[in-house]
Amino acid sequence: MKYSRLTKEQFEELHQEFINFLATQQVTADEWANLKVNKPELAETELDVFSDLIWEGVLNQAEYLEHFSAQHIYLFRLGKKKMKAIVINVKNKEVDITTQEGYDWLRANLMDERVEFLQADKPYSEDKNLDKFKMIEQGASITKGQLFRYFDELIN
C-alpha cells in the first residue's frame, strides 16, 4: 500500500465508487461478502488498492496545500515540476495564529517587524504525489489557494 487506507467514514462516503471499483474487478456483491468472510486478507488487499486509487486521484488534483502552527503558516502551490512555498513566521511568542485572536493579530499586523515572509521553490522527489501525501500526513490541508494567492500578491 502506497498511501493509507481510507477511514470507515470515507469508505461510506465513497460507497458507490467502491461498488464500481469492485465491478471493474469483476467482483459481485455476493463474491465480496464471501471474500470478507472466507478470504479476509484478499478483501483487505482490495480495500488497500481502492484507497490508493482514491488518493492518487485526489493528489493529482491538488493544487494548493496549507499548514498552520502556532507561529507559522506554510502555503504551497503545487506545480508540475516543483512546489512554490510561502512561509509566514510570527516572531511574537504571545501570538498563536491557530486561534482566532492570534489570526486577527496577524491580519492587523502584517507589516510588523515581528512578521517575516519567506519564499522558496522546492523540487519534488521522484514521487510527486508521495511528497504531497507526506505533507498531508504531517497536517497540511488541500485548499483552493486563496491564502497562497493573497500572500503571493502581497509580497511580490
UniProtKB/TrEMBL annotation:
The protein here is known as Histidyl-tRNA synthetase
Q: Which Pfam families match?
A: DUF6495
Q: Which domain of life is it from?
A: Bacteria
What the entry lists under InterPro entries is as follows: DUF6495 (IPR045470)
Q: Which organism is it from?
A: Mariniflexile fucanivorans
